[in-house]
Amino acid sequence: MSETVDVVLIGGGIMSATLGTLLKELQPDWKIVAFERDGEVAQESSNAWNNAGTGHSALCELNYMPDASDPSKAIAINEQFQQSRQLWSALVEKGILDEPSTFISTTPHMTFVRGEKDVAYLKARYETLRAQPLFEGIEFSDDSRVIHQWAPLLMEKRPKADEPFAATRVPAGTDVDFGSLTRQLFDHLRDGGAEVLLNHEVKNLKKQKDGTWEVSYRNRVGRTPGKISARFVFVGAGGWAIKLLQKAGIREIRGYGVFPIGGQFLKTSNPALVKKHQAKVYSQAAVGAPPMSVPHLDTRMVDGEGSLMFGPFATFSPKFLKKGSWLDIVSQVRPHNLGSMLKVGATNLDLVKYLVSELLKSRAKKIDSLREFVPTAKGEDWELIQAGQRAQVMKGGKLQFGTEVVSAADGSIAGLLGASPGASTGATIMLDVLKACFPDRMPAWEPQLKQLIPTYGETLNIDPEKARSVTDRTAEALRIAA
């Protein structure tokens, strides 16, 4: 007879780490077991070099605000990031997280566009956002001298006869090392009695008559099989979440499919270049490109070392994880999702064309793309690195962007599908999991949740004074710019 635990977390990424931490704070008596198929946690999308580390708060990402007059989605993303900041600051104050500089640093967020149409759009976006409390401090300029002060590499030797350009800047943006953050949270879970099983791959999920889940797994070292029962299961396994939720047989996963998109970045650690560029600079995406492929030039701080990353350049692999299976994209197909997936392919020809063009890009062409941002870029200063795999959600014949929680009606199991903004809004997403799966416990948990996330259940952007107070307080706790 297998052991029965309260919670099983599948996947050693930032989402499982965040949910496990919340549950450990809310129910310290619960037994938690986490499974990670790799030899370390944070090896897939949470790894610092598998993502851009942007504290996604819609300060610079244009895809969150396609209509310059409608800031609703941008505000919603920013609100969610503020909840993550509040949680992290509370965990720092409780001694659960280390010195904030080990996982977060101030990095201005900028948007840089070229051409009359995009300049007009960016100016209109700026005028809309400057009136929003959570976007206080946003700046706009179409003056090359000002933009040069903000980000010298963008303007050095840029042809004067080139098309019009403009930029916005928010000095209080951040860079986040989600790998370090994930490792620290799992260390805390271990210290609190949770069991974190590395090199253990979950193979099957089966609902038992008593309402618990039988979790079948295999130790990848020695290939020893095992089973454990859990009252609640969270599947935070990146692209593999759909495979496990399908094996669980829950009705709510019907109709879903995922489309994997990989990526590469150009990276440099040349100190002279890093010194000249202290910002995350986003631009407009190419026609047909998914939101995660918006070109950007990012300052990164990982393990105390500064670097720059440019990209991403889309790649294709049928794997749902970097270390996944070549059969992933095929093995997800079911009668209930096949039609939807075929429709996505037929109605997203721009995406197909974009992916083909990206796959045909040589290294020299990728350096040319970099030179559109950095006119003085030299190929020998930059290396290509492989980013993480992203699994875009397909449902109802549409390719959906963002992150989606899928939970069983009885709340006994939940999983996460999708990609960006994901990690940055992890606190809000995990609160959604708690609400969906533990509705009867939420009233008792609310006082503790308010201690961890003071604005839980509230909206900051409607109250300028409170928005400023909260952002100032978390900035002070995290040692970042307000």
UniProtKB/TrEMBL annotation:
GO terms for molecular function: (S)-2-hydroxyglutarate dehydrogenase activity; L-malate dehydrogenase (quinone) activity. Pathway: Carbohydrate metabolism; tricarboxylic acid cycle; oxaloacetate from (S)-malate (quinone route): step 1/1. Its EC number is 1.1.5.4. It catalyses: (S)-malate + a quinone = a quinol + oxaloacetate. Keywords: FAD, Flavoprotein, Oxidoreductase, Tricarboxylic acid cycle. It comes from the Bacteria. It is an enzyme of class 1 (oxidoreductase). Its cofactor is FAD. It holds the Pfam family Mqo. InterPro entries: FAD/NAD-bd_sf, MQO. Belongs to the MQO family. This is Probable malate:quinone oxidoreductase. It comes from Microbacterium oryzae.
